[in-house]
Design goal:
Number of strands: 0
Distance between the termini: 22 Å
Length: 378
């Protein structure tokens, strides 16, 4: 089972609107009430004087308003200014947001060390978002020396506070055995804690654990259950996973139409394996009408990403003129690339096609293969 970890720390939300109280009473409360009613201009007018007086809640929330462009033009530099004012007074949410601004280069030059500095301050106060982000910093070595043990420690602090992302990441730590002894049972338990909170990534990984019997007893029904939960949240890998379950009849009744549906959902999101699977469905009249043009379309999508089996099948379609105009040059190109990817029979088919080609065609096909670069799906 392949574990994918989120290394893009900006994926963790930095916008936490925690309207904290104030000794200034009425004016602050009126500002909060205006904000909650969507009257941002009034909220800004009431909160700004309080922020200048040093009221932490007003400073923090003024930073939020500049960050979001609520009632005032969006201005990241001013958001940073007010976050820093509140962070300097020890307000954890402001420290976390200020760290994230440094991390992403919003309103300030990107500076991972400063990001880690402020995020650590918020994490030390128990802010679960900060603890999770600090764990990611240690896991990736961003702004701090890479230290998987420290990453696990911070993930644990947030995970025991029921933070789903931290529970997922702690599960990855145990699954991979980096930062803690490898323990698939422990990994599955943390994935489950996040999965029941509707974390799609955890649901997909938990499904994979049940599918392969890692850390849990193998159970196709439970695997399909969790794959479907994640798929319904638009998790692309889970969509392909549940499609395979329907294709094979594992944990669910075999249903080619449902398999094709889920393959299409994942393929539309750029999952190469799903694009290849969908191509097979169209080529073989499985759950969809047979359509060689659509089969070639989806094989090409996967082939362009470097999926070797799709390159082989696309080469076959060019060799036979199925769904595409017959073209031995392109057939040779795709067989050549598939051979480099280790697909069985690709060399044999390439060599067979070579006998049907002119020397100049072979040279062109070889040049096309050499110049080819994969298109990475975003």
């Amino acid at each position: 089972m392949e574990i994918k970890i989120w290394n893009n720390v900006s994926s963790i939300s930095i916008l936490i609107l925690a309207l904290v109280g104030s000794v200034n009473g009425g004016a602050f409360e009126d500002g909060v009430a205006a904000y909650e009613q969507g009257d941002y201009e009034t909220a800004h007018r009431l909160l700004r004087p309080l922020a200048k007086q040093g009221v932490i809640g007003a400073q923090y929330n003024l930073g939020i308003m500049y960050h979001n462009g609520q009632g005032i033009p969006r201005d990241y530099a001013k958001a940073v200014y007010w976050y820093r004012k509140a962070a300097g007074q020890g307000y954890a949410d402001a420290q976390y947001n200020l760290g994230n601004m440094h991390n992403n280069g919003y309103g300030v030059p990107q500076d991972y060390a400063k990001a880690a500095h402020w995020v650590r301050k918020a994490a030390a106060q128990g802010n679960v978002m900060a603890q999770t982000l600090l764990g990611i910093f240690f896991d990736t070595g961003q702004g701090v020396p890479q230290n998987h043990t420290e990453a696990a420690r911070w993930f644990y602090k947030a995970a025991v506070q029921d933070h789903a992302e931290a529970q997922l990441l702690l599960g990855v730590i145990y699954f991979e055995g980096q930062g803690a002894p490898q323990n698939h049972t422990e990994a599955a338990q943390w994935f489950h804690k996040a999965a029941v909170q509707d974390h799609a990534g955890a649901q997909e990984l938990l499904g994979a654990m049940y599918l392969e019997g890692q850390g849990v007893s193998q159970n196709y029904t439970k695997a399909a259950h969790w794959f479907r939960k994640a798929a319904e949240q638009d998790h692309a890998d889970a969509q392909h996973d549940i499609g395979l379950m329907y294709l094979k009849g594992q944990g669910v009744p075999q249903d080619y139409a449902k398999a094709a549906h889920w393959f299409h959902e994942a393929a539309a999101q750029g999952v190469a394996s799903a694009q290849f699977s969908l191509g097979i469905m169209y080529a073989n009249h499985m759950g969809v009408p047979q359509d060689y043009v659509k089969a070639a379309h989806w094989y090409r999508k996967a082939a362009e990403q470097g999926y070797a089996d799709a390159q082989y099948n696309l080469g076959t379609m060019y060799a036979n003129g199925q769904g595409v105009l017959q073209d031995y040059v392109l057939a040779h190109k795709w067989f050549n690339l598939a051979a480099l990817g280790g697909t069985a029979n690709a060399v044999k088919n390439r060599d067979f096609i070579t006998k049907l080609m002119t020397p100049s065609q072979v040279v062109k096909a070889q040049r096309l293969a050499q110049e080819w670069q994969p298109i990475i799906s975003e």
